[in-house]
Amino acid sequence: MKKFRIGLIGYGFMGRAHSNAYRKVGNFFDLEHECILQAACARDAAKARAFATRWGYQSVETDWRKLIARDDIDVVDICVPNNLHAEIAIAAAKAGKMILCEKPLAMNGSEGKKMVAAVEKAKVPNMVWYNYRRIPAVTLAKQLIDEGRLGKIFHYRAKFLQDWTISADLPQGGTGLWRLDVKAAGSGVTGDLLAHCIDTALWLNGGIETVNAMTETFIKQRKHTLTGKVEKVGIDDACAFLARFNNGSLATFESTRYARGHKALYTFEINGEHASIFWDLHDLHRLQYFDHRDEGLVRGWRSIHVSDGDQPYMKHWWVPGLQIGYEHSFIHQVADFLKGIETGKPAGPTFRDALETQHVCDAVLTSAKTGAWQKVKTSAK
Ligand code: SOE
Known about the structure:
With about 375 residues, this protein is of the alpha/beta class. It has helices at about 15-30, 45-55, 65-70, 85-95, 110-120, 135-145, 180-185, 190-205, 325-345, 350-370; strands at about 1-10, 35-40, 60, 75-80, 100, 125-130, 155-160, 210-215, 220-225, 230, 240-245, 250-255, 265-270, 275-280, 285-290, 300-305, 375. The protein contains 10 helices and 17 strands. Helix 4 (about 85-95) packs parallel to helix 5 (about 110-120) and helix 8 (about 190-205) packs across helix 10. Alpha-L-sorbopyranose binds next to helix 8.
């Protein structure tokens, strides 16, 4: 088998999710490549060693530049805060490495554009970890839409709700809390949670033309973990926006970290002329489907338990009726990336695809400032 030697930078939640995927993908998918956990990289040597031991990485680096310079690394996986994505990705592309980058691609569109230019110039395979595309029920939604079962799409409705930053005592910045620090994250829920909703929406329903947004920062100041001082909070705690898609459909998107009781409630609903679909991350193996063309007597919402071998990805797992979960979306993403290299048909979202999401995020944040409708840029080829 060909070797796929991974150098992973970062050791947080996503470092674990990706490492788990690399370890399991070969057990369930027939691939020409074998994933080798070659090196884990983090600034803190003790933490890097502990992470490497737990997940089976063969070596450790404390400087990402050294990792990138190594000849025995084929792919660099970037799982560090958003403000480091561009520098690492551009250097990795120059060194000829394949790149898998955590979402969002960048701090903003102009940074993202440079990353796209770098990977395309170096002609290195690249991908961004928008994992929710690869939950089988979401992939099934894509299949139903592409088959034309919904007909003309009228409405797209998405939300992603959490509640983990409600306490005013929660500091900003540093390990685990960098998402509250605008210098490390770029934005709040827009780049973190809405980016997922936008990526799925662009994939399922095509490009977004214009947006009109509002954001709010409910807690204006928080102690900064790194400086020890109380500092202004620069991220958006909540964001809601209206959008018009290129296909004429209307959309609403909402996200917050202040929805008490909701930990990761990502849902979307799409209404078309013939049929509608609804999906909920808390019930991720089900796709709700209503088809108006069904015989009147039995017409109604079907709750499709997406666990049959005929349904996306499921033939790789257990026997029909037995479901899979969140971790598997990452395993599917590695499998698709490797299949993409093996067949010469790159799997998405590539950096260029993810740049489209970045452009929508930029337009949303600009509109929230100006209060006006904002046209979304596009870099699609
Ligand atoms: C934030 O809490 C977070 O971990 C996001 O960063 C992930 O991308 C999302 O999938 C779950 O929530």
